[in-house]
Amino acid sequence: MRTGLIYDPAYLNHNTGGHPENGDRVAYIYSILKKAGMLEKIIAIKPRLASLDEIELVHIPEYIARLRDYSNRGGGSYGPDNIVSRGTFNTALLAAGGTLAAVDAVLERKVEGSYALVRPPGHHARPGEAMGFCFFNNVAICARYAAKKYGLSRILVVDWDEHHGNGTEEIFYNDNSVLYFSVHRDGNYPGTGQIDQAGKGAGAGFNINVPLPRRCSDDDYEYVFRQILQPVAHAYKPELVLVSAGMDTHAKDPIGQMNIFGPGYSRLAAVVLEIAGRCCGGATVFVLEGGYNLQALAEGVMAVINTMVKWDFKEAHTLEEDLMVKTAVKSAVSNVRRYQERYWPELI
Ligand SMILES: [Zn+2]
After folding, report:
1. What domains are there in the chain, each with its CATH number?
2. How far apart are CA 341 and CA 50, in angstroms?
3. Tens digits of per-residue pLDDT, 135-147?
4. CA of 94: how far to CAs of 79, 91, 97, 130, 136, in Å?
5. Four-residue CA torsion sign, 14, 138, 141, 123
6. Active-site pick, 59, 123, 124, 164
7. What are the pLDDT digits (tens) for 197-227?
8. Ligand 1 center to residue 140 CA distance, Å?
9. Which residues surround ligand 1, an ion (CB under 5 A)?
10. Is 184 known to be catalytic?
């Protein structure tokens, strides 16, 4: 597929010092993509600053103003997990705006898919609160923007970061125009993401949480995607797929406790691209979230971009019976299916 890549050295201007979420992450990933000759295979897309109106699609004005003032004054600690520097506010606008540029390129068919190599990450950010290294919820802003600008009414968000995207869930909890699917480690930060949190009102059935035990492998994750995500997504027929593509599920991650290796991300990306290929001409935007080991980040992002570049919409999957799946994962999957089948008869 024609693949866009969003990156800018200005993503380093959110200066967090020795914090795990620091500028070395994206700089290193980009240097490895360059070294591997990937930049010749992708179409570079320039990010832009999101406007305040665009940020307000998700966040409350008082919070935006508070963050801007704190950043302008030089920053410091911001809540228990976040650090703000003088460059933070604009970098956060550029992360959201980079994701918007990625979605424009896809929906205007300049590319079929794009990868937004941006920071700070977004999926923990709530409408009025920064959390878990996140300030603005890039993916949520992007979904609201795509719905407004392009009139979309079915957007799928796939979140494979090791942590539950509590911000994204909260923002779309009553909303059926966004189907949020999260696979995360059970009991992990921020403590949300239970199976019975399935959406409310019009949003009932449009929030799917899959909490998993620790040390899940490539096969375990692929099984979850094939058993739950794929049948539901085929029925939902998204017009756009957004992916919160955190890399803290990598076996080498110092914060995460999962066991995915580089090629595992190709397999997850392949399931996502199969859905997008079948439902919306491939329209997919992958967005970086967590991931704190440089080598693991580079391997994961490289695997995803490679899969995108080579994607011909016909890629064969591993046979499901060949997957080696932990008993605990099979039982987690059957619990989710049993809970969600009231909304999705495909899961019965
Ligand atoms: Zn994470």
Report:
1. 3-347 (3.40.800.20)
2. 39
3. 999 999 999 999 9
4. 22, 5, 5, 16, 10
5. negative
6. 124
7. 999 999 999 999 999 999 999 999 999 999 9
8. 16
9. 161-163, 246, 248, 290
10. no
- Residue 291 CA, ligand 1 centroid: distance in Å: 7
Centroid of ligand 1 to alpha carbon of 212 (angstroms) = 14
CA of 143 relative to ligand 1 center, distance in Å: 20
Ligand 1 mean position to 151 CA, how many Å? 30
CB–CB of 346/234 below 8 Å?
yes
Q: Regarding beta strands 76-78 and 82-84, do their DSSP bridges make them parallel or antiparallel, or are they unpaired? A: antiparallel
Instruction: Please give the DSSP secondary-structure letter assigned to residue 226.
Output: I
Residues 6+ apart with CB under 8 A from 312: 1
Tokens of 76: 């410091």
Nearest alpha carbon to residue 50 among 108, 120, 133: 120
| Coil, helix or strand at residue 115 | strand
Place of tokens 């099984």: 223
Q: What is the pTM of this model?
A: 0.98
Rounded to the nearest 5°, which phi and psi values hold at 259?
-135, 40
Long-range CB contacts (within 8 A, 24+) of 84-90: 85/13, 85/14, 85/15, 85/16, 86/15, 87/13, 87/14, 87/15, 88/13, 88/14, 88/15, 88/120, 88/135, 90/10, 90/13, 90/49
